[in-house]
Amino acid sequence: MSLMYSLVRTAIYTFLFFALSLVIYLAFWFVIRPYKKRKHFQRYSETIGFSSSFIPFLGDYKHLNEVYLSKGKFIGHFLRDLAVDFGKKKAFFGSLGMDDMVFINDVDYLTEVSKLVPHVLDRESIDTTGFGRIGGTGGLGQSKTTKYWALRRQIFTKTIGVNHASRFIPIFIKHCEKGVSEFEEGQVINMSEVANTISFEIICEILYGCDIRDKLEKVRYTNKDGTVEIVNLYQCLMKISHDCSFASLNPLNILFPLLVHYSIGAENRRNTKNSDEFERVIKDICAKSQDSNSVYNQVLATGEIDKEMVYKDVMTILFAGHETTSKSLCSALFQLKKHPEAEKKLRKEINESLLQNGKYSLKDLAKILNTEALDKMDYLTCFVKEVLRHDPPAVRSLGYKAKASFKVKDLLIPKNQIVLFNLYAAQYDEKQWIEPMKFIPERFDPSSEYFLTPNGKQRHPFAFCPFTFGTRTCPGRAIGLMEFKILLIYFMLAIDYEVDQEILDNPDVTYSIMSPFTLDMKIKKVHV
Ligand code: HEM
Protein backbone atom coordinates (compact mmCIF):
# COMPACT_ATOMS: atom_id res chain seq x y z
CA MET A 1 0.00 0.00 0.00
CA SER A 2 2.76 2.39 1.02
CA LEU A 3 4.74 1.45 -2.14
CA MET A 4 1.68 2.25 -4.23
CA TYR A 5 1.25 5.51 -2.35
CA SER A 6 4.88 6.55 -2.90
CA LEU A 7 4.68 5.63 -6.62
CA VAL A 8 1.58 7.77 -7.09
CA ARG A 9 3.20 10.56 -5.11
CA THR A 10 6.36 10.40 -7.26
CA ALA A 11 4.25 10.42 -10.41
CA ILE A 12 2.31 13.46 -9.22
CA TYR A 13 5.50 15.29 -8.24
CA THR A 14 7.12 14.44 -11.56
CA PHE A 15 4.05 15.65 -13.41
CA LEU A 16 3.95 18.86 -11.34
CA PHE A 17 7.66 19.39 -11.91
CA PHE A 18 7.29 19.12 -15.70
CA ALA A 19 4.11 21.21 -15.73
CA LEU A 20 5.81 23.92 -13.69
CA SER A 21 8.91 23.83 -15.91
CA LEU A 22 6.67 24.20 -18.93
CA VAL A 23 4.86 27.17 -17.41
CA ILE A 24 8.18 28.82 -16.49
CA TYR A 25 9.55 28.13 -19.99
CA LEU A 26 6.47 29.60 -21.69
CA ALA A 27 6.27 32.54 -19.29
CA PHE A 28 9.94 33.38 -19.78
CA TRP A 29 10.06 33.18 -23.59
CA PHE A 30 6.63 34.58 -24.37
CA VAL A 31 5.85 37.03 -21.57
CA ILE A 32 8.83 38.04 -19.43
CA ARG A 33 11.49 38.28 -22.16
CA PRO A 34 9.40 40.22 -24.71
CA TYR A 35 8.10 42.46 -21.91
CA LYS A 36 11.64 43.20 -20.66
CA LYS A 37 12.87 43.87 -24.17
CA ARG A 38 9.98 46.23 -24.83
CA LYS A 39 10.66 47.98 -21.54
CA HIS A 40 14.32 48.41 -22.54
CA PHE A 41 13.46 50.00 -25.86
CA GLN A 42 10.71 52.17 -24.37
CA ARG A 43 13.53 54.19 -22.79
CA TYR A 44 14.39 55.31 -26.32
CA SER A 45 10.86 56.06 -27.45
CA GLU A 46 11.98 59.27 -29.15
CA THR A 47 14.01 57.16 -31.56
CA ILE A 48 12.29 53.79 -31.77
CA GLY A 49 8.62 53.04 -32.51
CA PHE A 50 6.32 50.25 -31.27
CA SER A 51 2.93 49.00 -32.33
CA SER A 52 0.25 49.89 -29.81
CA SER A 53 -1.34 46.48 -29.41
CA PHE A 54 1.39 44.28 -27.99
CA ILE A 55 -0.02 41.15 -26.29
CA PRO A 56 1.82 38.32 -24.53
CA PHE A 57 2.48 35.20 -26.64
CA LEU A 58 1.47 36.81 -29.93
CA GLY A 59 3.42 40.04 -29.62
CA ASP A 60 2.45 42.38 -32.46
CA TYR A 61 0.43 39.76 -34.33
CA LYS A 62 -2.91 41.44 -33.47
CA HIS A 63 -1.77 44.75 -34.96
CA LEU A 64 -0.30 43.03 -38.02
CA ASN A 65 -3.45 41.05 -38.55
CA GLU A 66 -5.93 43.90 -38.00
CA VAL A 67 -4.15 46.49 -40.10
CA TYR A 68 -2.44 44.36 -42.74
CA LEU A 69 -2.98 40.61 -43.13
CA SER A 70 -6.80 40.64 -42.84
CA LYS A 71 -6.93 43.44 -45.44
CA GLY A 72 -4.97 41.51 -48.07
CA LYS A 73 -1.79 43.47 -47.33
CA PHE A 74 1.48 41.89 -46.21
CA ILE A 75 4.47 42.47 -44.00
CA GLY A 76 6.09 44.66 -46.69
CA HIS A 77 3.28 47.24 -46.46
CA PHE A 78 3.88 47.33 -42.74
CA LEU A 79 7.60 48.01 -43.27
CA ARG A 80 6.88 50.71 -45.85
CA ASP A 81 4.43 52.43 -43.53
CA LEU A 82 7.14 52.62 -40.89
CA ALA A 83 8.71 55.33 -43.03
CA VAL A 84 5.47 57.26 -43.11
CA ASP A 85 3.31 56.44 -40.08
CA PHE A 86 5.39 56.04 -36.99
CA GLY A 87 6.34 59.70 -36.76
CA LYS A 88 9.32 58.82 -38.96
CA LYS A 89 11.05 56.97 -36.15
CA LYS A 90 14.63 55.92 -36.80
CA ALA A 91 13.91 52.30 -35.88
CA PHE A 92 11.06 49.98 -34.92
CA PHE A 93 10.86 47.21 -32.33
CA GLY A 94 8.49 44.37 -33.14
CA SER A 95 7.87 40.91 -31.77
CA LEU A 96 6.02 37.82 -32.88
CA GLY A 97 5.91 34.83 -30.52
CA MET A 98 9.38 34.39 -29.11
CA ASP A 99 11.05 36.23 -31.99
CA ASP A 100 11.70 39.92 -31.62
CA MET A 101 13.59 42.21 -33.92
CA VAL A 102 14.73 45.77 -34.43
CA PHE A 103 14.18 47.23 -37.90
CA ILE A 104 16.50 50.11 -38.78
CA ASN A 105 14.56 52.65 -40.88
CA ASP A 106 16.66 55.77 -41.06
CA VAL A 107 19.53 56.18 -43.55
CA ASP A 108 21.93 57.77 -41.03
CA TYR A 109 21.28 54.96 -38.57
CA LEU A 110 21.69 52.44 -41.40
CA THR A 111 25.11 53.95 -42.14
CA GLU A 112 26.20 53.57 -38.51
CA VAL A 113 24.88 50.02 -38.25
CA SER A 114 26.42 48.90 -41.54
CA LYS A 115 29.89 49.86 -40.20
CA LEU A 116 29.41 47.26 -37.45
CA VAL A 117 29.02 44.36 -39.91
CA PRO A 118 30.59 41.80 -39.46
CA HIS A 119 32.58 42.58 -36.27
CA VAL A 120 29.61 43.35 -34.03
CA LEU A 121 26.68 42.31 -36.22
CA ASP A 122 26.74 39.17 -38.31
CA ARG A 123 24.54 36.35 -39.54
CA GLU A 124 23.51 33.76 -37.04
CA SER A 125 24.58 30.34 -38.36
CA ILE A 126 21.38 28.47 -39.02
CA ASP A 127 21.37 24.75 -38.52
CA THR A 128 17.86 23.45 -38.86
CA THR A 129 16.16 20.66 -40.70
CA GLY A 130 13.51 21.15 -43.36
CA PHE A 131 13.42 24.58 -44.90
CA GLY A 132 16.84 25.58 -43.56
CA ARG A 133 18.38 22.71 -45.50
CA ILE A 134 16.86 23.53 -48.88
CA GLY A 135 17.88 27.17 -48.38
CA GLY A 136 21.47 25.89 -48.13
CA THR A 137 22.14 25.59 -44.40
CA GLY A 138 25.75 26.60 -43.88
CA GLY A 139 25.79 28.11 -47.38
CA LEU A 140 27.02 31.62 -48.23
CA GLY A 141 24.00 33.50 -46.94
CA GLN A 142 23.67 31.65 -43.65
CA SER A 143 27.28 31.30 -42.49
CA LYS A 144 29.08 33.71 -40.24
CA THR A 145 31.72 35.94 -41.79
CA THR A 146 35.07 34.15 -41.56
CA LYS A 147 38.18 34.00 -43.74
CA TYR A 148 36.89 30.82 -45.35
CA TRP A 149 33.50 32.44 -45.98
CA ALA A 150 35.24 35.43 -47.62
CA LEU A 151 37.19 33.07 -49.90
CA ARG A 152 34.00 31.22 -50.90
CA ARG A 153 32.21 34.47 -51.59
CA GLN A 154 35.13 35.87 -53.57
CA ILE A 155 35.31 32.79 -55.81
CA PHE A 156 31.55 32.68 -56.37
CA THR A 157 31.33 36.42 -57.07
CA LYS A 158 34.15 36.04 -59.60
CA THR A 159 32.31 33.32 -61.52
CA ILE A 160 28.92 35.05 -61.57
CA GLY A 161 30.09 38.65 -61.13
CA VAL A 162 30.16 41.68 -63.33
CA ASN A 163 32.94 40.56 -65.71
CA HIS A 164 31.28 37.25 -66.34
CA ALA A 165 27.60 38.11 -66.21
CA SER A 166 27.42 38.94 -69.95
CA ARG A 167 28.30 35.36 -70.92
CA PHE A 168 24.94 34.35 -69.47
CA ILE A 169 22.93 36.53 -71.92
CA PRO A 170 22.22 33.65 -74.38
CA ILE A 171 21.01 31.55 -71.43
CA PHE A 172 18.61 34.33 -70.33
CA ILE A 173 17.20 34.65 -73.84
CA LYS A 174 16.94 30.90 -74.47
CA HIS A 175 14.72 30.42 -71.41
CA CYS A 176 12.58 33.47 -72.26
CA GLU A 177 12.04 32.00 -75.76
CA LYS A 178 10.95 28.71 -74.23
CA GLY A 179 8.53 30.46 -71.85
CA VAL A 180 6.95 32.64 -74.56
CA SER A 181 6.67 29.71 -77.01
CA GLU A 182 3.92 28.33 -74.78
CA PHE A 183 1.83 31.55 -74.89
CA GLU A 184 -1.34 31.71 -76.95
CA GLU A 185 -3.05 34.90 -78.07
CA GLY A 186 -6.14 35.70 -76.02
CA GLN A 187 -4.94 33.54 -73.13
CA VAL A 188 -4.70 34.93 -69.58
CA ILE A 189 -1.45 33.80 -67.98
CA ASN A 190 -0.19 33.89 -64.42
CA MET A 191 3.00 35.80 -65.18
CA SER A 192 4.26 35.41 -61.61
CA GLU A 193 4.42 31.66 -62.13
CA VAL A 194 5.89 31.92 -65.64
CA ALA A 195 8.58 34.36 -64.47
CA ASN A 196 9.46 32.14 -61.48
CA THR A 197 9.85 29.11 -63.73
CA ILE A 198 11.99 30.99 -66.25
CA SER A 199 14.31 32.47 -63.64
CA PHE A 200 14.57 29.12 -61.83
CA GLU A 201 15.57 27.34 -65.06
CA ILE A 202 18.09 30.10 -65.80
CA ILE A 203 19.78 29.80 -62.42
CA CYS A 204 19.80 25.98 -62.68
CA GLU A 205 21.57 26.14 -66.02
CA ILE A 206 24.08 28.72 -64.76
CA LEU A 207 24.84 26.68 -61.65
CA TYR A 208 24.81 23.13 -63.02
CA GLY A 209 25.51 23.60 -66.72
CA CYS A 210 23.71 23.24 -70.02
CA ASP A 211 24.17 19.47 -70.20
CA ILE A 212 22.06 18.96 -67.11
CA ARG A 213 18.74 19.89 -68.68
CA ASP A 214 17.88 16.41 -69.95
CA LYS A 215 19.20 14.80 -66.82
CA LEU A 216 17.02 16.81 -64.46
CA GLU A 217 15.59 14.07 -62.37
CA LYS A 218 11.99 14.08 -61.22
CA VAL A 219 11.58 14.42 -57.49
CA ARG A 220 9.48 12.20 -55.24
CA TYR A 221 7.32 14.50 -53.13
CA THR A 222 5.33 13.05 -50.21
CA ASN A 223 1.87 14.55 -49.77
CA LYS A 224 0.06 15.06 -46.47
CA ASP A 225 -1.94 11.83 -46.89
CA GLY A 226 1.28 9.87 -47.40
CA THR A 227 0.86 9.41 -51.16
CA VAL A 228 3.92 10.11 -53.28
CA GLU A 229 3.77 12.43 -56.27
CA ILE A 230 6.42 12.77 -58.97
CA VAL A 231 7.12 16.47 -59.56
CA ASN A 232 9.83 18.52 -61.22
CA LEU A 233 12.57 20.29 -59.30
CA TYR A 234 10.90 23.69 -59.36
CA GLN A 235 7.50 22.37 -58.26
CA CYS A 236 9.22 20.51 -55.44
CA LEU A 237 11.05 23.63 -54.24
CA MET A 238 7.81 25.61 -54.25
CA LYS A 239 5.90 22.88 -52.41
CA ILE A 240 8.56 22.50 -49.71
CA SER A 241 8.83 26.26 -49.39
CA HIS A 242 5.05 26.49 -48.91
CA ASP A 243 4.93 23.58 -46.42
CA CYS A 244 7.79 24.94 -44.32
CA SER A 245 6.36 28.48 -44.23
CA PHE A 246 3.10 26.94 -43.06
CA ALA A 247 4.93 24.89 -40.41
CA SER A 248 6.69 28.02 -39.17
CA LEU A 249 3.25 29.46 -38.27
CA ASN A 250 2.17 26.34 -36.37
CA PRO A 251 1.78 27.45 -32.71
CA LEU A 252 3.38 24.20 -31.48
CA ASN A 253 6.46 24.78 -33.63
CA ILE A 254 6.60 28.39 -32.44
CA LEU A 255 6.40 27.27 -28.80
CA PHE A 256 8.87 24.39 -29.18
CA PRO A 257 11.38 25.02 -32.00
CA LEU A 258 13.07 21.71 -31.14
CA LEU A 259 10.10 19.93 -32.74
CA VAL A 260 11.25 21.28 -36.12
CA HIS A 261 14.90 20.72 -35.37
CA TYR A 262 14.44 17.04 -34.49
CA SER A 263 11.58 16.41 -36.98
CA ILE A 264 9.07 15.49 -34.30
CA GLY A 265 5.41 15.23 -35.38
CA ALA A 266 3.94 14.06 -38.69
CA GLU A 267 4.22 17.41 -40.49
CA ASN A 268 7.81 18.07 -39.46
CA ARG A 269 8.78 14.50 -40.39
CA ARG A 270 7.22 14.91 -43.82
CA ASN A 271 8.96 18.26 -44.39
CA THR A 272 12.31 16.74 -43.50
CA LYS A 273 11.67 13.75 -45.75
CA ASN A 274 10.83 16.01 -48.70
CA SER A 275 13.84 18.24 -48.04
CA ASP A 276 16.09 15.17 -47.88
CA GLU A 277 14.77 14.03 -51.26
CA PHE A 278 15.32 17.50 -52.75
CA GLU A 279 18.86 17.57 -51.36
CA ARG A 280 19.56 14.10 -52.76
CA VAL A 281 18.43 15.14 -56.25
CA ILE A 282 20.51 18.35 -56.22
CA LYS A 283 23.58 16.39 -55.10
CA ASP A 284 22.95 13.93 -57.90
CA ILE A 285 22.68 16.78 -60.43
CA CYS A 286 25.95 18.26 -59.17
CA ALA A 287 27.61 14.86 -59.51
CA LYS A 288 26.36 14.45 -63.12
CA SER A 289 27.28 17.96 -64.25
CA GLN A 290 30.07 17.75 -66.87
CA ASP A 291 29.80 21.29 -68.29
CA SER A 292 33.07 23.03 -67.39
CA ASN A 293 31.31 26.40 -67.75
CA SER A 294 28.89 25.69 -64.93
CA VAL A 295 29.44 27.71 -61.77
CA TYR A 296 29.50 24.47 -59.77
CA ASN A 297 32.33 22.97 -61.83
CA GLN A 298 34.25 26.24 -62.07
CA VAL A 299 34.22 26.76 -58.33
CA LEU A 300 35.11 23.12 -57.72
CA ALA A 301 37.99 23.35 -60.22
CA THR A 302 39.69 26.07 -58.16
CA GLY A 303 40.35 23.30 -55.61
CA GLU A 304 40.01 25.89 -52.85
CA ILE A 305 36.60 24.95 -51.52
CA ASP A 306 35.51 21.70 -50.01
CA LYS A 307 33.01 19.82 -52.24
CA GLU A 308 30.27 19.70 -49.57
CA MET A 309 30.60 23.46 -49.11
CA VAL A 310 30.38 24.16 -52.86
CA TYR A 311 27.22 22.13 -52.89
CA LYS A 312 25.76 24.14 -49.97
CA ASP A 313 26.66 27.46 -51.59
CA VAL A 314 25.09 26.36 -54.85
CA MET A 315 21.89 25.56 -52.93
CA THR A 316 21.89 29.04 -51.38
CA ILE A 317 22.34 30.68 -54.77
CA LEU A 318 19.64 28.52 -56.31
CA PHE A 319 17.32 29.87 -53.67
CA ALA A 320 18.56 33.49 -53.51
CA GLY A 321 19.00 33.96 -57.24
CA HIS A 322 15.65 33.24 -58.83
CA GLU A 323 12.66 34.78 -57.06
CA THR A 324 14.31 38.17 -56.62
CA THR A 325 14.66 38.57 -60.39
CA SER A 326 11.28 37.11 -61.31
CA LYS A 327 9.49 39.39 -58.83
CA SER A 328 11.32 42.42 -60.27
CA LEU A 329 10.24 41.43 -63.79
CA CYS A 330 6.57 41.16 -62.76
CA SER A 331 6.70 44.52 -61.03
CA ALA A 332 8.25 46.12 -64.14
CA LEU A 333 5.65 44.61 -66.51
CA PHE A 334 2.94 45.89 -64.16
CA GLN A 335 4.37 49.44 -63.96
CA LEU A 336 4.65 49.63 -67.77
CA LYS A 337 0.89 49.24 -68.07
CA LYS A 338 0.22 51.57 -65.16
CA HIS A 339 2.42 54.29 -66.70
CA PRO A 340 1.97 54.26 -70.51
CA GLU A 341 4.18 57.37 -70.91
CA ALA A 342 7.09 55.47 -69.30
CA GLU A 343 6.39 52.47 -71.55
CA LYS A 344 6.49 54.69 -74.64
CA LYS A 345 9.78 56.27 -73.60
CA LEU A 346 11.35 52.91 -72.82
CA ARG A 347 10.16 51.32 -76.08
CA LYS A 348 11.62 54.23 -78.04
CA GLU A 349 15.00 53.82 -76.32
CA ILE A 350 15.05 50.05 -76.79
CA ASN A 351 14.12 50.34 -80.47
CA GLU A 352 16.72 53.03 -81.15
CA SER A 353 19.49 51.23 -79.26
CA LEU A 354 18.88 47.86 -80.86
CA LEU A 355 18.20 49.02 -84.43
CA GLN A 356 20.77 47.51 -86.77
CA ASN A 357 20.57 48.58 -90.39
CA GLY A 358 17.05 49.74 -89.76
CA LYS A 359 15.65 46.49 -88.41
CA TYR A 360 16.31 43.64 -86.07
CA SER A 361 14.81 40.30 -85.40
CA LEU A 362 14.07 38.86 -81.97
CA LYS A 363 16.16 35.87 -83.04
CA ASP A 364 19.24 38.14 -83.20
CA LEU A 365 18.72 39.50 -79.71
CA ALA A 366 21.35 37.27 -78.12
CA LYS A 367 23.91 38.65 -80.59
CA ILE A 368 22.88 42.31 -80.36
CA LEU A 369 22.46 42.53 -76.61
CA ASN A 370 25.69 42.93 -74.71
CA THR A 371 26.99 44.95 -71.78
CA GLU A 372 27.82 47.96 -73.99
CA ALA A 373 24.34 48.03 -75.56
CA LEU A 374 22.75 47.82 -72.10
CA ASP A 375 25.01 50.56 -70.71
CA LYS A 376 23.83 52.94 -73.42
CA MET A 377 20.18 52.57 -72.38
CA ASP A 378 19.98 55.28 -69.73
CA TYR A 379 16.21 55.30 -69.41
CA LEU A 380 16.17 51.51 -69.00
CA THR A 381 18.57 51.92 -66.05
CA CYS A 382 16.36 54.64 -64.52
CA PHE A 383 13.24 52.52 -65.03
CA VAL A 384 14.78 49.38 -63.55
CA LYS A 385 16.11 51.31 -60.54
CA GLU A 386 12.73 52.90 -59.91
CA VAL A 387 11.09 49.44 -60.00
CA LEU A 388 13.61 48.24 -57.40
CA ARG A 389 13.00 51.35 -55.28
CA HIS A 390 9.23 51.40 -55.53
CA ASP A 391 8.72 47.66 -55.15
CA PRO A 392 11.95 46.06 -53.84
CA PRO A 393 11.81 42.25 -54.20
CA ALA A 394 13.42 41.94 -50.77
CA VAL A 395 11.68 44.43 -48.48
CA ARG A 396 14.27 43.93 -45.75
CA SER A 397 17.74 42.50 -45.32
CA LEU A 398 18.39 39.00 -44.04
CA GLY A 399 18.72 38.82 -40.24
CA TYR A 400 21.81 40.05 -38.37
CA LYS A 401 22.52 39.16 -34.74
CA ALA A 402 24.37 41.40 -32.26
CA LYS A 403 27.49 39.61 -30.99
CA ALA A 404 27.80 42.24 -28.25
CA SER A 405 25.66 45.14 -27.08
CA PHE A 406 26.30 48.34 -29.03
CA LYS A 407 25.07 51.89 -29.44
CA VAL A 408 23.76 53.40 -32.68
CA LYS A 409 23.78 57.11 -31.96
CA ASP A 410 21.52 57.31 -28.85
CA LEU A 411 19.99 53.81 -29.15
CA LEU A 412 21.42 50.93 -27.08
CA ILE A 413 20.99 47.55 -28.78
CA PRO A 414 21.46 44.62 -26.37
CA LYS A 415 23.62 41.55 -27.07
CA ASN A 416 21.91 38.79 -29.12
CA GLN A 417 19.32 41.23 -30.53
CA ILE A 418 18.21 40.40 -34.09
CA VAL A 419 18.57 43.50 -36.28
CA LEU A 420 17.26 43.98 -39.83
CA PHE A 421 17.66 46.78 -42.36
CA ASN A 422 14.27 48.08 -43.43
CA LEU A 423 14.91 48.69 -47.14
CA TYR A 424 11.34 49.71 -47.81
CA ALA A 425 11.49 52.52 -45.21
CA ALA A 426 14.75 53.95 -46.60
CA GLN A 427 13.36 53.87 -50.14
CA TYR A 428 10.19 55.72 -49.11
CA ASP A 429 11.87 58.25 -46.82
CA GLU A 430 10.20 61.63 -47.48
CA LYS A 431 13.42 63.44 -46.58
CA GLN A 432 15.24 61.60 -49.37
CA TRP A 433 12.66 61.28 -52.13
CA ILE A 434 10.24 63.72 -53.72
CA GLU A 435 6.73 62.19 -53.60
CA PRO A 436 8.08 58.70 -52.71
CA MET A 437 4.73 56.92 -53.18
CA LYS A 438 4.76 57.82 -56.90
CA PHE A 439 6.52 55.77 -59.58
CA ILE A 440 8.91 58.23 -61.31
CA PRO A 441 11.89 56.69 -63.20
CA GLU A 442 13.28 60.20 -63.86
CA ARG A 443 14.32 60.46 -60.20
CA PHE A 444 17.47 58.56 -61.23
CA ASP A 445 18.23 60.96 -64.10
CA PRO A 446 20.68 63.71 -63.00
CA SER A 447 19.00 66.23 -65.33
CA SER A 448 15.57 65.73 -63.72
CA GLU A 449 14.01 67.92 -61.02
CA TYR A 450 13.28 64.67 -59.12
CA PHE A 451 16.95 63.73 -58.88
CA LEU A 452 17.62 65.59 -55.63
CA THR A 453 15.97 65.46 -52.20
CA PRO A 454 12.96 67.74 -51.50
CA ASN A 455 15.51 70.17 -49.97
CA GLY A 456 17.51 70.24 -53.19
CA LYS A 457 20.42 68.19 -51.77
CA GLN A 458 22.15 65.03 -53.02
CA ARG A 459 20.40 61.91 -51.81
CA HIS A 460 22.03 59.81 -49.08
CA PRO A 461 23.91 56.86 -50.68
CA PHE A 462 21.86 54.39 -48.60
CA ALA A 463 18.49 55.86 -49.64
CA PHE A 464 18.48 53.43 -52.60
CA CYS A 465 19.44 50.03 -51.24
CA PRO A 466 17.58 47.08 -52.86
CA PHE A 467 20.75 44.95 -52.55
CA THR A 468 21.75 46.45 -49.14
CA PHE A 469 25.36 47.52 -48.56
CA GLY A 470 28.66 46.58 -46.94
CA THR A 471 30.31 43.23 -46.33
CA ARG A 472 27.13 41.16 -46.61
CA THR A 473 25.55 43.00 -49.53
CA CYS A 474 23.99 40.82 -52.25
CA PRO A 475 26.79 39.14 -54.26
CA GLY A 476 24.38 38.56 -57.17
CA ARG A 477 23.84 42.27 -57.87
CA ALA A 478 25.58 42.37 -61.28
CA ILE A 479 24.04 39.20 -62.66
CA GLY A 480 20.64 40.02 -61.10
CA LEU A 481 20.51 43.49 -62.66
CA MET A 482 21.62 42.22 -66.05
CA GLU A 483 19.12 39.36 -66.02
CA PHE A 484 16.32 41.72 -64.99
CA LYS A 485 17.10 44.11 -67.87
CA ILE A 486 17.35 41.36 -70.50
CA LEU A 487 14.16 39.63 -69.40
CA LEU A 488 12.32 42.95 -69.44
CA ILE A 489 13.55 43.85 -72.95
CA TYR A 490 12.68 40.38 -74.22
CA PHE A 491 9.11 40.43 -72.90
CA MET A 492 8.50 43.99 -74.11
CA LEU A 493 9.55 42.96 -77.63
CA ALA A 494 8.05 39.48 -77.71
CA ILE A 495 4.48 40.12 -76.56
CA ASP A 496 1.71 42.69 -76.37
CA TYR A 497 -0.28 42.21 -73.19
CA GLU A 498 -2.78 43.93 -70.96
CA VAL A 499 -3.42 43.94 -67.22
CA ASP A 500 -6.86 44.29 -65.66
CA GLN A 501 -7.68 47.94 -64.87
CA GLU A 502 -8.90 46.98 -61.38
CA ILE A 503 -5.45 45.61 -60.54
CA LEU A 504 -3.72 48.64 -62.06
CA ASP A 505 -5.84 50.93 -59.87
CA ASN A 506 -5.14 49.04 -56.64
CA PRO A 507 -2.52 51.08 -54.72
CA ASP A 508 -1.60 48.08 -52.53
CA VAL A 509 -0.35 45.90 -55.39
CA THR A 510 3.25 44.82 -54.94
CA TYR A 511 5.20 41.84 -56.23
CA SER A 512 7.80 41.67 -53.45
CA ILE A 513 8.67 38.22 -52.10
CA MET A 514 5.82 36.97 -49.88
CA SER A 515 3.33 39.43 -51.38
CA PRO A 516 -0.13 37.87 -51.84
CA PHE A 517 -0.51 39.42 -55.32
CA THR A 518 0.14 37.60 -58.59
CA LEU A 519 0.38 39.24 -62.01
CA ASP A 520 -2.31 38.02 -64.40
CA MET A 521 -1.74 39.21 -67.98
CA LYS A 522 -3.91 38.83 -71.08
CA ILE A 523 -1.75 38.02 -74.10
CA LYS A 524 -2.88 40.16 -77.04
CA LYS A 525 -0.16 39.33 -79.55
CA VAL A 526 2.90 37.09 -79.64
CA HIS A 527 5.67 38.38 -81.95
CA VAL A 528 7.78 35.21 -82.15
C1 HEM B 1 17.03 41.89 -58.47
C2 HEM B 1 17.71 40.90 -57.97
C3 HEM B 1 18.19 40.77 -56.53
C4 HEM B 1 17.92 41.53 -55.42
C5 HEM B 1 17.04 42.75 -55.32
C6 HEM B 1 18.65 40.92 -54.30
C7 HEM B 1 18.63 41.40 -53.00
C8 HEM B 1 19.30 40.82 -51.94
C9 HEM B 1 19.24 41.28 -50.58
C10 HEM B 1 18.44 42.47 -50.08
C11 HEM B 1 20.02 40.45 -49.83
C12 HEM B 1 20.23 40.52 -48.31
C13 HEM B 1 21.53 41.27 -48.00
C14 HEM B 1 21.65 41.56 -46.53
O1 HEM B 1 21.12 40.84 -45.71
O2 HEM B 1 22.30 42.57 -46.17
C15 HEM B 1 20.59 39.46 -50.72
C16 HEM B 1 21.44 38.45 -50.33
C17 HEM B 1 21.97 37.51 -51.17
N1 HEM B 1 21.76 37.42 -52.54
FE1 HEM B 1 20.64 38.68 -53.67
N2 HEM B 1 19.32 39.83 -54.76
C18 HEM B 1 19.09 39.69 -56.11
C19 HEM B 1 19.60 38.73 -56.96
C20 HEM B 1 20.50 37.75 -56.60
C21 HEM B 1 21.09 36.80 -57.51
C22 HEM B 1 20.77 36.72 -59.01
C23 HEM B 1 21.92 36.00 -56.75
C24 HEM B 1 22.81 34.86 -57.20
C25 HEM B 1 23.07 34.52 -58.42
C26 HEM B 1 21.84 36.46 -55.38
C27 HEM B 1 22.53 35.89 -54.31
C28 HEM B 1 22.47 36.33 -53.00
C29 HEM B 1 23.17 35.70 -51.88
C30 HEM B 1 24.08 34.47 -51.96
C31 HEM B 1 22.87 36.45 -50.73
C32 HEM B 1 23.38 36.21 -49.31
C33 HEM B 1 24.59 37.14 -49.08
C34 HEM B 1 25.22 37.02 -47.70
O3 HEM B 1 24.55 36.73 -46.73
O4 HEM B 1 26.41 37.25 -47.57
N3 HEM B 1 20.97 37.53 -55.32
N4 HEM B 1 20.13 39.70 -52.01
Structure overview:
The protein is α+β, with helices and mostly antiparallel strands. The chain is 50% helix and 10% strand. The chain contains 22 helices and 13 strands. A six-stranded mixed β-sheet has the order 1-2-3-11-8-4. A three-stranded antiparallel β-sheet has the order 5-13-12. It has a two-stranded antiparallel ribbon with strand order 6-7. Strand 6 and strand 7 form a beta hairpin. Helix 13 runs antiparallel to helix 14, helix 15 packs across helix 16 (340-354) and helix 16 (340-354) runs antiparallel to helix 19. The model has no long low-confidence stretch (mean pLDDT 88). The site of protoporphyrin IX containing FE has 26 residues, from helix 14, helix 15 and helix 21. Protoporphyrin IX containing FE binds at residues 123, 140-141, 160, 316-317, 320-321, 324-325, 328, 393-394, 397-398, 466-468, 472-476, 479-480, 484.
Arithmetic mean of pLDDT: 88
Distinct bound molecules: protoporphyrin IX containing FE
The beta-strand count equals: 13
Helix coverage percent: 40-55%
Name the shape in a single word: globular
Strand percentage, roughly?
Answer: 5-15%
Q: Using only CA atoms, what is the Rg?
A: 25 Å
What would you call the structural class? alpha+beta
Number of helices: 22
End-to-end gap: 90 Å
Q: Report the biggest beta sheet as strand number plus sense, adding barrel if it closes.
A: 6 strands, mixed
Low-pLDDT residue spans: none
Largest sheet, order of strands side by side?
Answer: 1-2-3-11-8-4
